[in-house]
Amino acid sequence: MPFAAITYDVKSGFEKEITEVFRGFRRVRSSVVEDDTGRPEATILSTAVFIRDATLVRVIEYEGDLDAVARFMANQPGVREFEERIAPYLSRPRSTATIEDFVATFKRSLLNPVVQFSVRDR
């Protein structure tokens, strides 16, 4: 299963407040990502968030099309709410007002994968 890591440029010294923003996150309504016709395009398997000083990273484990995952996330009410709540703690604003803006920001925020290992790959 592939992983994607997304960075957020955050202000140092607000780790506690940022952690609270994530604790209040409303999960997506389904882990299955469907296209406009209802056909499954991807599945979000798990997520994790890490923070230290001015670096925040969200890791997403998924199957399928990562672009579909980004479009799906852009439409989720909890994600929209999260983007509003995290904004005061960002050192570099994220443009996420529209689906297109969200997807472009998502892609710009991706870390380049170096290597991924899993016991499931055996």
Automatic annotation (TrEMBL):
Q: Pfam families annotated for this entry?
A: SchA_CurD
Q: Where in this chain does the record put each SchA/CurD-like domain?
A: 1-119
**Top-rank taxon:** Bacteria
Q: InterPro entries under this entry?
A: SchA_CurD-like
**Name of protein:** SchA/CurD
Q: Which organism is it from?
A: Streptomyces humicola
High-level lineage: Bacteria, Bacillati, Actinomycetota, Actinomycetes, Kitasatosporales
